[in-house]
Amino acid sequence: MNATPRRWPDLVFYRLALVAAVLVFHRRVVFDPDFIFPWDFRAVHVPLATLISDSFRRGEFPLWDPYTYCGIPIFANIQAALFYPPVLVATGLGAIFGDHLLPKFLAISVVLQVAFAGLCAFELMRKLDVRPAAAWIGASVYELGCFFAAQPEHMGAMQSAAWLPLIWLCVLQLRTFKRRWLAILALALAMTVFAGLPQVAVAAFSSAICLAILLALCRVSNWRVTAFALLASLAALLLAAVQFLPTAELTSNSVAKYRSEWLGSGGGIPPGALLSLVVPNYWNVFDLSTFHGPTDLTFLYLYSSLLGLALALGSILMSPIFWKPGRWARVFAALFAIFTVAMLGDQTAIGRAALRALPAQLRIGVHPEFLFCVFSLSLAILAGLGAERLLRSSRLQIAAGIVIVCDLILVSSGRPMNQSSTILDPGITHDSADGNPEVLARLREITGHPISAHAPPYRYDASPGVSFLWSNSGPVMGIPTANGCDPLAPERTIDARLAFASGPRWGTCYQVENPRSPVLSLMNVRALLSVTDLDGPGLRLAAQSGGYKIYENTAVLERFFFVKRVRVVETLAEAAANVQSADFHPSEDAVVEAPGENFAASSAPATVRVVSYAPSAIRLETVASAPSFLVATESYYPGWEATIDGIPTRVYPTDAAFRGVSIPAGTHIVDFRFVPKTLYRSAAVSAIALAVLLACCL
Question: Smallest Cα–Cα separation from 288: which of 158, 420, 391, 465?
């Protein structure tokens, strides 16, 4: 059936209805200051955005995060979404109006993107020759349905999935080639990379190519569309090079490269999650105290309304009985089936075989559960097609749409996976820690908060039993930590932390199990948070409040110091073994990865003073009566350069995780500066790709 002619008042009404429904669904997060998105949104995304916002406020471009893992490149951490326009707007507003409003700005930005997804889904449905009311049904099922209802904690997932309908619309438009649609497709695919979660970007790229292939197989289009989709994918990667290449470099220097060791063949959504299509609270996801699911509850909620599901199944199952199946039903039923199996991952024999066939380097980037967004959009499109086929009257379609929207808002809105009360769960903010301002005030006092232009504060850390929320909250509190909780955790930092913690090399967050380890002092940790009694050399109980015990490490080493001896090793593995050994004394010995080199180290008097300190630039003044070796307990990472009195000198990987410089006798000025050449080169690639794309469209 051909779509009825466009009547702009009707189309405006449906579009406004889509935006209004999203605002009603997320009404508390948008309009109530006491509600925000839960879990990772607060523990991961808000700290990263806070660091970006604070950098903008100082007039700096955020390059280096000095608060986490003893330092990590913020621009290379794809979860920060530094180059994603909506995040730039939200963090810019935070810089202007204050970081206390930043979480709300971020949340509103995400909600508006969900509305954008609904509007694009509406246009996609219209391209499939359905009436406006049926298009509204399909778009409503997507924007209010399972993926966007379950995933708000994963800001990057929400942002990436918002581009999926536009991507599919572009693929359909390319059936009759137009350069502007090829350019829009490339740009939309690039946005899924910038949005902050590469696993959903993988879903976007793969679904676009799969859709193009299905169009050809079902004879809706020819194979040129597949070639166009592949060309757009390549252009998108070039456009996103400024994010993609630095993240690849960070991955090669992080524990993420060992992901295949702990994920087996790849993971996936348990098949039992499909029960929630009919019984939304099957796993008790609405009440965390009774939740009994086999995995993360955000992947156990697939509810997209009973009527929406019935319409989707009707478009697939009833067509062969009563009439020839529509061409679009064939295409999207096939897409739905493919990605339903794919999102189950290694939970099925087909998924296990497919994942095991992938090279390890590709498998570490695949999280089948995030293909869930393709499942959601395919289901929504089938619901719209079913409404067009099964509900012959526009009035029936409008009535069905109202039922679906009310059902999804009443059932899915305001649940633990899409909103959190800051009253019931205060979390960590600039003013308080878990609702206890005394703990935060004491931590700041012990560490010497804040970071100043003349000296950095000491770091803090935590022992087992303390929430991992503390591991990522340094940027929010303004206090650096030696820990973190990120899948891109620097390999070197984790190797050093294994000196006082147990676990495999792919771990991302290790609490301090052995507070007696001298490596704790090496990491400049002066404040140690615990829920139990601790004992160790130099540790003294400084405060107790809110169930926490705060220990001060009086044996802490300064951030920059000289050593008496240097042990030369060849590899990181050797360095890590030395640092983790019982005979390692970091105040006297430095373990340096410099095969074949000799270093002068001396017990003669030597001092170092911090002249100025900034995240990406550090200036020191050293005074030594003999050639000496300087240890800087700042993360070693490609791009850090050093000069002595303006003359370049080599920065050596030291004590597995840190930097070292050989200093001649006398008084000298030592400068450390972060010059990330990978960023600059990749930015040039993105700029050239954008220029070529624009030129092709003119």
Answer: 420
3-class DSSP state of 242: helix
Residues contacting 396, CB < 8 A, separation 6+: none
Tokens 């379950």 locate to 150
pLDDT digits (tens, 9 = 90+) for 22-43: 999 999 999 999 999 999 999 9
Separation CA 641–CA 637 (nearest Å): 10
The DSSP line for 407-444 is HHHHHHTT-TTT-EETTT---B-SS-BTTBHHHHHHHH
Residue 379 DSSP SS3: helix
Would you place residue 323 in the very low, low, confident or very high pLDDT band (cuts 50, 70, 90)? very low
pLDDT the model gives residue 322: 41
| 3-class DSSP assignment, residue 676 | coil
With beta carbons less than 8 A apart as the criterion, state whether 209 and 173 touch: no
CA–CA gap between residue 367 and residue 265 (Å, rounded) = 10
Spatial CA neighbour of 461 closest among 373, 381, 551: 551
- What phi-psi label fits residue 601: left (phi over 0), alpha (psi between -120 and 50 degrees) or beta? beta
What span, in angstroms and rounded, lies between the C-alpha atoms of 382 and 134? Answer: 10
The confidence score (pLDDT) of residue 453 equals 61
How many whole angstroms separate alpha carbon 122 and alpha carbon 136?
A: 6
Query: What is the C-alpha separation between 204 and 193, in angstroms, rounded?
Result: 9
Q: Report d(CA 509, CA 254) in Å as an integer.
A: 13
User: Hunting for tokens 């410089």 — which residue is that?
Assistant: 661
**What residues contact residue 616 under an 8 Å CB cut-off, 6+ apart?**
60, 63, 64, 673, 674
CA distance 27 to 414: 9
pTM: 0.95
Decide if 401 contacts 140 (C-beta within 8 A): yes
Alpha helices in 254-412 (DSSP H): 259-263, 306-317, 319-322, 327-343, 349-357, 360-363, 372-390, 394-412
Give the distance, in angstroms, between the CA of residue 71 and the centroid of all CA atoms in the same chain.
17
In contact, 593 and 626? CB cutoff 8 Å: no
CA angle 405, 406, 410 (to 5 degrees): 120
Q: What is the DSSP letter of 557?
A: P
User: DSSP 3-state helix, strand, coil percentages of the chain (rounded to 5)?
Assistant: 50, 15, 35
Measured in residues, the chain has a length of 698
Q: CA-CA distances (angstroms) from residue 592 to 482, 659, 687?
A: 20, 9, 39
- Neighbouring residues of 91: CB distance < 8 A, sequence distance ≥ 6: 49, 52, 53, 56, 102, 105
CB neighbours of residue 9 within 10 Å: 6
- Pairing mode, strands 589-593 and 565-569: parallel
Q: Which of 501, 503, 505 has its CA nearest to residue 261? A: 505
**How far is residue 527's CA from residue 109's CA, in Å, rounded to a whole number?**
36
Residue 451 has pLDDT above 70, yes or no: no
Tell which residue, 74, 70, 72, 73, has the closest CA to residue 458. Answer: 70
* 3-class state of residue 271 by DSSP: helix
Tell me the two tokens of residue 437.
């301002």
